[in-house]
Write a structure and sequence with these properties.
With 230 residues, this protein is α/β, with parallel strands linked by helices. The chain has eight helices and twelve strands. 29% of the residues are buried.
Amino acid sequence: MDLILLAVDNDIVHFNNHEALWKKYGITPMRVSTMQEAIKRLMNEEYIFVGINGDNINYQPLLSIMRDITPLPIHIYTSFITYEGRLEAIKLGADSYELWHQDSEKTIILCTAVLQRYMNRNSQSKRHCKCLSHNGIFLSLKYRKVFSNDIEIELTRKEFDVLYLLMSDCKRVFTYEQILRNVWGEEYIDANNSSLWNLIKRLRKKININSSEVPHYIKNVHDIGYAFDY
């Protein structure tokens, strides 16, 4: 089995400077620059552990979700440690939170020790967590959280439920009636297309706040309904 480290690091120079050291210990590092991309890869690819650069990655919002989808060791390294930072990281699901030594090889040796302990005691089976990710939007059903490019978006219950329904089958056109029945439930008889239109308008505004290149994730199919990334 190839030993591949998933490195979450926004500093490509830092990553390149240490790539050869990882390979010296038989580990091939694979870099991503965001927690959202890391979670997406963990859901579809095989790794042996996760290393997060705490100096340039905002890991707190998504760390607990990452912990839910994988039993792999999650190691956070940083150039400056505080007790509060370490406590928060461990509570959110990190296995270790350590100082990146000036002697980089010492840090890598520590990481490989954590990995060896994991491989001796645990299987590589994945945990199951209902998460959806598409075109910069990440949704966790368990935590009922939505992120756009790693920034959390505050949604109402119905806004979340509509987005989840549309993202659950991207490009499928859901009719107005299907959305109203699925999301409004028993309140369906009191709802109408105008209620849905107003909700979609608010939802579009919220999820497009960080994406100027894409005018709308949610497309209106005239006289039929809505689709995500249609």
